């Protein structure tokens, strides 16, 4: 390897995390520990109705029966769930009437993160729900959205104001018993976003939630529920950051999407939790369950994700293609460096007839990181004419990283047509040479090649996010990626 | 289902009767293997490797584990006639085993082949736990449940060894013939060793006749290619619905060796599981893995392959194709593993499946696990019906539907059979495949 490449690698492995600051703010914590009292405490703090408390307690019982999964391709660190605080909130309870009443420290935090909470300063027309540790701080543009009947608020509010919707759909896509972390989330979930798009409405702006973990020794367990009624459309964005801390923090979210007849949900994530330092100390464990169901015919769900943060990312945004003529998409870029681990992919369950799915996954692994794509394409016995296309490519930068592909293809119907292809390689020396010859230095050349490599996925992001994602990729692979 | 306790009783009986005949090393190896086997017992569908194949019905309670060599009806003189009946090509060197036991060796006239040693495997084992082979991948492969059980309980086996710097010019045909056995869980074994710069071609045929009832054959093979050795290996499985086969082969390759493997699983056995684990332990080695599985209704064929690139500059190429009839289950599970040291690896893997009936079940799991950066690894998997346009083209020319389907199926499998370089072996396999296509 040439010297320049070595220099670039050096930079890749030493780049800093930009959002590592923490906010000094008066916080209120639940005492650490996981038990029925904690759950009752959270429920009481949020003055929840009794049905939800019972629902949480049921989930807790399920959780006690669950065991940690053992099939993963990385070493799952021991985690003491009793040492974590399950509720952390800024003390000054923000009343949501006006932004002026929000703690200025909080506003400053989000401003520093580049999140526009002040509607006047808004240019982009993105409605934001800002979640700080366990509570939603503020949701912008609510009034404008409510004019067309769209409900966009924190899930805590939705529980109070729209219990019928929440009760109907909560846990309908990701059941409490789905997996270890989904059961834990169901028991102790704190806050998150709720979106309801009524029949025939095309959401006029991008909806966005920004998650920030600030508190020490706490976990974030948010719960997001999005329901798109018949003939509606919504594009939803999610971003996340956390301060640099030496301890590992747990983030175990559950996201449920429901698309009714002819509806379309586009869900985009730019995940940039603190990845830990270059020795692998600290960082967020991002163990998330995300699943959508295309319940009605002709509905569509599309997941796009750019994963650059977290010490360990372990998630498989999935789509259940229940209706006929439904469509599921998954576009992913996962970048890992230092000692990061990403085990991510998707599951496409073809149940309805004439359903289609498309999977594009791009992994970039640098330093000593391990990057795995794990996916499932399942075609049920009645899913006639199911169609799937999967492509997963991995790029290796450095000789101590790993890239893995574990696709599962299961078909029980002969009319299915499934294609899967994957490649793993490093950036071709001939490609760099070609660009060098045209006067482009190696660093820029690597950047161009990587940009071209991920372009197919970034194109799927809403414009506002695509810019952010590109910036993020540049920072993450600083030095090597233009 | 067969219980580990039952097996243990049998194992003790076997040890008792074998004690007098075998050396202490073999006995120790048997004991160690059984101990390891009983730690985990038989795999279940919860185990990742056996996710798609449930063996509880297969290993039923009626099965008996023989503890001493099975009686063979066929007299020594009957060997030649039997070989004719089994369509053994006369120009090959043929080794016939009956129910695992060596029966006849037939050489074509004029051939000497004195560089090939054929012996009883009981003499020694290619690899024991303490032979210093510390490669984790090899250890993992020989410690898979059925390999361990075979090592502990095998009664018969065959060993073929080619002398260094020599070639065996004609194919060596091993016919594993199963006849007249009922409710038997049989453990048979084959060891192949090609010494430095040696060349050998081996064709193994697994044939069962209709007098077999409820038979499970657990066949284990260990293959060793020394530096610069080349070995062409063909496994052709023609069994009936009363015979099941679990095959485990572990291959080790030293530098600049070339191993070519073909596994042809033909329809009508109730259950076939092919485990193939290959370790490229020397630089500049090459491996070809070709597989064809033709799954008849109610049949299960499960292929599990692992190619382990442990040293730099090795290449591997894999092509597995399956035709699955209605209510049959065809599985392909292929793993390419590239070790940290295995820079400049070039690995390719392709799996294609053709479902013929509405309820054909197909599972495909191509995997890449890569820890070195300067590599090129690619895999692809495809599943889909016949091309309607092609079918239409044939029908429009007055060709009957069944014949058109057969023609297109034949074209689909030809990609595999065409990779067979030796003319005589290609036509031997192609004939069998064509007959099988007629019956599917």
Automatic annotation (TrEMBL), chain A:
One of the protein's GO biological processes: iron-sulfur cluster assembly
Domain SUF system FeS cluster assembly SufBD N-terminal: 146-202
Domain SUF system FeS cluster assembly SufBD core span(s) in chain numbering: 211-452
InterPro entries: Fe-S_cluster_assembly_SufBD (IPR055346), SUF_FeS_clus_asmbl_SufB (IPR010231), SUF_FeS_clus_asmbl_SufBD_core (IPR000825), SUF_FeS_clus_asmbl_SufBD_sf (IPR037284), SufBD_N (IPR045595)
UniProt xrefs under PANTHER family: FES CLUSTER ASSEMBLY PROTEIN SUF (PTHR30508), UPF0051 PROTEIN ABCI8, CHLOROPLASTIC-RELATED (PTHR30508:SF1)
NCBIfam families: PRK11814.1 (NF008773), sufB (TIGR01980)
Family to which the UniProt record says this protein belongs: Belongs to the iron-sulfur cluster assembly SufBD family.
Name of the protein described by the UniProt record: Fe-S cluster assembly protein SufB
Phylogenetic placement of the source organism: Bacteria, Pseudomonadati, Bacteroidota, Chitinophagia, Chitinophagales
UniProtKB/TrEMBL annotation, chain B:
Source taxon at top rank: Bacteria
InterPro entries from the UniProt entry: Fe-S_cluster_assembly_SufBD, SUF_FeS_clus_asmbl_SufBD_core, SUF_FeS_clus_asmbl_SufBD_sf, SUF_FeS_clus_asmbl_SufD, SufBD_N
GO biological process, one term: iron-sulfur cluster assembly
Domain SUF system FeS cluster assembly SufBD core residue range list: 182-412
SUPFAM superfamilies given in the database record: Stabilizer of iron transporter SufD
Location of the SUF system FeS cluster assembly SufBD N-terminal domain: 11-73
NCBIfam families per UniProt: sufD (TIGR01981)
Family of the protein in this entry: Belongs to the iron-sulfur cluster assembly SufBD family.
Protein name according to UniProt: Fe-S cluster assembly protein SufD
